Amino acid sequence: MTMDEFYGVVGECGLPRFAAKQLADWVYKKRVSSIDEMTNISLANRTLLAEKYDVGRYTPLEFQQSVDGTVKYLFKTEKDKLIEAVMIPEDDRATLCVSSQVGCKMNCLFCMTGKQGFNGNLTANEILNQLYSVREAENLTNVVFMGMGEPLDNYEELKKTLDIMTADYGMAWSPKRITVSTTGVTPKLKRFLDESNAHLAVSIHSPEKEQRLSIMPAEKAFPISGVIDMLKDYDWKKQRRLSFEYIMFDNFNDSLVHAKSLAQLLRGLECRVNLIRFHAIPNVDLKTSTKERMESFRDFLTNKGLTCTIRASRGEDIFAACGMLSTMKGKKNEESNHI
Questions:
Q1: In terms of Cα–Cα distance, which of 316, 311, 318 is closest to 74?
Q2: Are strands 199-203 and 242-248 parallel, antiparallel or unpaired?
């Protein structure tokens, strides 16, 4: 809930107005799991609250831990759907990759989540619960909306989540600790840029229109050229960071011709490019680029003045790319039901 909603709760229940701040403190600062733990609220009022509300916390169904420390969590939603969150440790950072939808409408060829189809938006509660209910919850330093789903396709709940994460009454995080990833849903992208200061990561994966369309159907509705034009209208030298995600596929989008086209497309933008190894998924005839081709691609972009890095591959032994665990678990559940 937002602060305004907490005020609505205490008004409805006949509690004093200052109790709204107490509720927010217990939920977001003290991280309680039940109303019974709110000890500075009278027992009678706690009983009254518990008749109508609960905190909304629930634990993961299971988790898998990689040899490199990456941990993948499986959650069940309020409608009994399955979603994932992935915690990535790195030096003094602990980054949680959260989901915003059950499945995804974008149906990118290389993404396991897209193979599930779309099964609904997550509520702000279900998104925040991922942050609050993983084992590392109190030590998280960063959050990336790069899990299951297209965050901007669930914009209202995303916006509410970001507001609570950055509000003084909420988690009081700096927007610098948050990155939202998108394929480029342009109507909602404009709102995000106007209404939030969180970092932005755009999934590009090919600078060539027809080739990008072949692996990312969203290119038809939201051409990357239009996304870039919109982004060029904003000042990226301020606090917000703009990056482009580029998964490299062997002999598909990893030539120096592609690197040249990408440099041309991004000319004039203050941004960085993250090159990503492809984690293979079933029934998709794509392979990751070689280390040498990725390094040549990076070096070309660097020489063109772009900040370009090769992202370290994490959690490959547990299929940390979102969608694999929930798909496998969902299929097992279906098989059990049929039996």
A1: 318
A2: parallel
* Catalytic annotation present for 322: yes
Give the up-direction half-sphere exposure of residue 333: CA atoms within 13 A in the CB hemisphere: 10
Taking alpha carbons only, the member of 138, 140, 126, 160 closest to residue 4 is 160
Q: How far apart are CA 241 and CA 102, in angstroms?
A: 27
62-338 belongs to which CATH class?
Answer: alpha beta
> How confident is the model at residue 336, as a pLDDT?
47
> How far lies 167's CA from each of 10, 159, 161, 172, 282, in Å?
20, 12, 10, 5, 41
Catalytic-residue membership of 156: no
Q: What is the pLDDT of residues 151-172, one digit of tens each?
A: 999 999 999 999 999 999 999 9
Active-site residue, selected from the candidate residues 84, 150, 219, 245 = 84
Question: Which stretches of the chain score pLDDT less than 70?
Answer: 238, 315, 317-339
Determine the residue type at 259: A
- Report the C-alpha dihedral over residues 289, 294, 296, 299, rounded to 10 degrees: 160
Number of continuous H segments (helices) and E segments (strands) in the chain: 13, 12
Q: Is the Cβ–Cβ distance between 216 and 205 less than 8 Å?
A: yes
Q: Cα–Cα–Cα angle for 241, 244, 249, nearest 5°?
A: 155
Q: Are 61 and 75 in contact (CB under 8 A)?
A: yes
**Can you read off the two tokens belonging to residue 215?**
């692996």
Instruction: Give, rounded to a whole angstrom, the gap between the first and last alpha carbons of the chain.
Output: 41
The burial class, CB within 10 Å (0-12 / 13-18 / 19+), for 332 is: exposed
Q: Which of 104, 271, 308, 322 is catalytic?
A: 322
Residue ranges covered by each domain of the chain = 3-52, 62-338
Average pLDDT value over all residues in the chain:
93
Instruction: Give CATH for domain 3-52.
Output: 1.10.150
DSSP 35: G
Q: Which helix (H) or strand (E) holds 156?
A: helix 155-166
